[in-house]
Amino acid sequence: MILVTGGAGFIGQRLIRRLVDEGREVRTLIRPSVRTPQLPHGVAVEAAISSLADPRGLRAALVGVDTVFHLAGVTWSDQSPNIRATESEGTRNLLDAAQDAGVKRLVYISHLDADRAAAFPVLKAKGIAEEFIRQQSIPFTILRSALAFGPGDHFTTGIAKLMAYLPRVFPIPSDGEMLLQPIWVEDLVSCLAWCLDDEETIGQTIEIGGPEHLSFRHIAEQVKARAGLDRQLLSFRPSYLRIMRNFLRILAPKLPVSTLWLDYLATDRICGLDTMASAFHLVPARFSQKIEYLAGVDWKAALQKQMASEKPDLTNSLVS
Fold this sequence. Notes:
The chain has 320 residues and is of the alpha/beta class. It has 11 helices and 13 strands.
């Protein structure tokens, strides 16, 4: 039995479908919520209700489990003031329960540049979680991933929604020339699933990303063109964008924006272009070849629908 934490998320839904299609038994950990979890339709998967802060719930969820995919944790959208407790302590609780349950394999998804000494909250929390994983006895694989994109993401669709919301211009931090390495979500899911059958990945921390280094400005231009949005990209100092974000939250409290993406865009977030090919013998998809899902959508209406269905937001944002 495989347990997937974060199975209702953007990556988790696709991983569950892939694992079930391969004939594996899957259970997913769903945190308690008043909302119905977004599990993949038509897929036979068990659900266990527990938060990562509930040791008893975690032990119950791990009964009969031999493999854990740990995808749950903070994202670039999370505005909680206690990110470390959400990510790092939650991971430690899961590890303690997994060791008691006799779990034989753990695969954890992290971020490029995760480091316990990082200045940015999400990268610091991920780095601490990685250290907890390395210090325990369960055979593990850590995948440090670049930003994943695809239908239903919070990265490209978040940019499109914000472009549609803002009149005429779209602000970008500094000159917009910081480099990213977007990875097609199905390529990321393939790497996650293949870790189970590749013993060479055990004990490894592997960085993966797409096949090209793209500036944020270039990415925004491609999103703008494919989504059919006529906006001028204007450069702003990050400090001004933080003020702008606070102003927008006053005007529209449910607007899904977060300043954490400014942390991510403070510098290049890239790895070697051949990392996926060398580690998994997979040629990743190019960004421009996979963003057709942005075309033909009323992104302003999509944002209004999202805002109408959500409380003032702690879970969705531009980047995830």
